[in-house]
Specification:
It is a single chain. By secondary structure, this protein is α/β, with parallel strands linked by helices. It contains ten helices and eight strands. The chain has an eight-stranded mixed sheet with strand order 3-2-1-4-5-6-7-8, with helices on both faces. The longest helix has 13 residues, at 157-169. It is globular. The chain starts with a strand and ends with a helix. The mean pLDDT is 97.
Length: 222
């Protein structure tokens, strides 16, 4: 059983918590408002869920999910994330995060920016390109003919292997989308962002196989 620390308990964070618990993992949830504000969520999720501070969730996790606004990167707990395998689900949005010149241009991806804030973490970009309702509904067991694929990007082969194993456990297969510098191919507005999994108005989503995800990544332009 893996312990998954989750920093940020919004739509993606709580969806991943549900999927992880369904796969037999333990989750430690956190947010910026304090663990007491997560009492109802934890009660709904059951005995394998608990709430903690962000630093405690980072320390507890075998894998840690960071799912916060890009503007919150400076507030992340640095020391507890050192050496940890960290999944970055974050998307840059200037209307929410304010303008960040490096991200407005092409000199940096948001994952590379995150790596600067948590330099000793083993970072993997994942789950940032899929609507949370589709993420919940499209999970399938290994071997299913309609299993959906998700892209991941990262610089650490061991971290990508561990994240691939976790993603497989919660019902998805993986396409290796390259390094953190390549992660722009799955950023907001790219062909692989949202579209392969169907419109938001259809909450059940549409399964997307490996060929569809590879094709979408291949036609991305920056």
């Amino acid at each position: 059983m893996t312990t998954v620390g989750i920093i940020g308990s919004g739509q993606i964070g709580t969806t991943l918590a549900r999927l992880a618990i369904g796969a037999g993992h333990r989750v430690v949830l956190s947010n910026s408002r304090g663990p007491e504000t997560l009492a109802a969520t934890v009660a709904e999720l059951g005995l394998r869920a608990s709430a903690a501070t962000s630093a405690e969730a980072a320390a507890a996790g075998d894998i840690v999910v960071v799912t916060v606004p890009v503007s919150a990167f400076p507030d992340l707990p640095v020391a507890p994330l050192a050496g940890k395998m960290v999944i970055d689900t974050c998307n840059y949005g200037p209307e929410r995060d304010g303008h960040i010149p490096e991200l407005d241009g092409t000199s940096l991806t948001s994952s590379e920016l995150l790596q600067r804030y948590i330099p000793d973490a083993l970072l993997v970009k994942a789950f940032n390109n899929v609507f949370y309702k589709h993420l919940l509904s499209l999970a399938r067991p290994a071997g299913a003919a309609d299993r959906t694929y998700l892209p991941i990007a990262g610089d650490s082969a061991p971290a990508k292997a561990a994240v691939t194993e976790f993603i497989d456990s919660i019902g998805y297969s993986v396409i290796n989308a390259g390094s953190l510098a390549d992660s722009w191919r799955q950023a907001t507005g790219t062909p692989v962002w949202g579209t392969p999994y169907g419109p938001y108005s259809v909450e059940s989503g549409r399964p997307a196989g490996g060929d569809a995800i590879r094709a979408a990544l291949a036609i991305a332009t920056r």
